[in-house]
Amino acid sequence: MSFERIGIVGAGSWGTALALLLAAPGRTVTVWGHDALHLERMRQEGENAAYLPGIRLPEDVRWSAELEDLAGSELVVVVVPSKAMREVSARLSTVGVRRDAVLLSCTKGVERGSGLRMSEILEESFPGHPVAVLSGPSHAEEVALKRPTAVVLGSRDAAVGRDLQKAFSTPFFRAYTSLDVAGIELGGALKNVFAIAAGVGDGLGLGDNSKAALVTRALAELVRLGAALGGQRDTFYGLSGLGDLMVTCFSRHSRNRAVGERLGRGETLPQIIASMSMVAEGVPTTFSAVECARRHGIETPIIDQMRALLDGEIRAGEALAALLNRNPKSELG
């Protein structure tokens, strides 16, 4: 399938960046957003000033507050916050989406309570449809500026994966394929929790040695939990695991790292969230990850400390002390 008609669900920074990426001659790209006033400002100003200021928007991309306008899309790209995925996907399923449409989740999260990945929620709303995922080190700010980026597309149908690869590949955006949908999603979701921890270290002024140690141990924890939840271990050493972990823990664009940095400086989570216009997915994913780890009996010391910090049970320095004072063990144990 050539995907000549593409719908994007979500008009935030990532949804806008993907619209810029996918807009091409011969394609119709329609972006849905829940805020009609925000969309009208985008149309009038020619930019998404709230989320990607200074980036000019293509004139041929359509912006709509009506989900029905996506009904004829051959590819529906879903880029909404994880907490909204169930509601939005349920609504989308009622507007008459084509029977052969491919659903692509670009949302990085795990549903609290159920432990479901975003693609699994989409599959509940769209039984019989191909559902794929996209993840990897891909901050919207850099994709919008056409900075070189590589991601991985996951689909259990290899042919669908190849079709998506063709649609997303550009001279600056390289897309790899994989059959491991679970591993790709889990890597993209769990790394946000560790980015908060990396930011805490930045806020405490701990330095490079500390961050390198944290990221290394975070990868071990990610692999351990991700494999228990159904991902293939090798996937977590690729773009959606190690690659995304690195960029999210170190980048100035990372909202999750920024949340951790502010926690490290002594701010409370409610104060931080109240001041943010965008979602830091690592916050809800921390609680989902703890639930999943307990369900499967997996040891997750970093995630556990982040959960206690986010809940206000401990301070940033206490979380660090708890990690450093754990019983000695073998690195590979």
Quick one: CATH superfamily of the largest domain? Answer: NAD(P)-binding Rossmann-like Domain
- pLDDT averaged over residues: 96
Instruction: Give the DSSP E fraction (strand runs of 2 or more residues).
Output: 5-15%
Uncertain runs with pLDDT below 50, 5 residues or more? none
How many structural domains are formed by the residues? Answer: 2
What would you call the shape? globular
Order of helices and strands: EHEHEEEEHEHEHEHEHHHHHHHH
User: What is the tally of helical segments?
Assistant: 14
CATH domain class name of the largest domain? Alpha Beta
Task: Supply the helix-strand structural class.
Answer: alpha/beta
- As an assembly, this protein is single chain
Alpha carbon gap, first and last residue: 47 Å
Q: What is the CATH architecture descriptor of the largest domain?
A: 3-Layer(aba) Sandwich
List the strand order in the largest sheet: 5-2-1-6-7-8-9-10
Write the layout of secondary structure elements.
Layout: E1 5-9, H1 13-22, E2 28-32, H2 36-45, E3 47-48, E4 52-56, E5 62-64, E6 75-78, H3 85-92, E7 102-105, H4 118-125, E8 131-135, H5 140-144, E9 149-154, H6 158-168, E10 173-178, H7 181-204, H8 208-228, H9 239-250, H10 255-264, H11 269-274, H12 282-296, H13 301-310, H14 316-324
Parallel strand pairs: 1-2, 1-6, 2-5, 6-7, 7-8, 9-10
Antiparallel strand pairs: 3-4, 8-9
